[in-house]
Design brief:
The chain is α+β, with helices and mostly antiparallel strands. It has a single domain, classed as L-fuculose-1-phosphate Aldolase (3-Layer(aba) Sandwich). The chain contains six helices and eight strands. The protein is globular. The N and C termini lie far apart (37 Å).
Length: 213
Amino acid sequence: MIMEKQRLEIIEYGIRLLRTGLTNGTSGNLSMYDPETGYMAITPSGIGYEETRPEDIVIVTLDGERVDGERKPSSELDLHASLYRMKPHARAVVHAHSMACTTLACLREPIRPIHFLLPCFGMSEVPVAPYVTFGTRELADSVAKTIGDGDACLMANHGVICCGAGMAGAFGLLETCEWCAELQWRCMCAGRPAVLSDEEVQKAVARFAGYGQ
């Protein structure tokens, strides 16, 4: 089976996406990319994460040409492909309609550095791409023009998308974005969030360089 390892990983993290409450129903989508073949494995359209089987995962080129699989691929195929094209390190993409990120996206409010955790992921903020109808190439272009050097982007009145060097990294970034978005929303409800200065952001980034074992 082509990209069997990636198919199984997509299913694993799709179920995790659902069970952690980061999405519901069949909303959101996940993919992985193999630069050696140029193939992308992506979740099928409209099939529940817990019902998805390896053979349901669709294998396509970045241009959308079907390589393997009988299912219809996610409507956001172009969105995923655009990130692989512009982020050479990206091997996985996760898109979700998680509550806190989507709340800020509907406010058209970026996730700002009100906590040092966000800068530690190499982003001073998570920007908001202008609203475009879901499932269109125009949406993919909107995100590509907005995301900048970071690996996460909110989509106005839609949700959030994250990429990473592996599925664990992309999923972990999504969890971090959701936590930071909820914290920001709570602060906005209580008053005016205090945003870290550029100097403090850089100090946090430098400090994080020596974090862990």
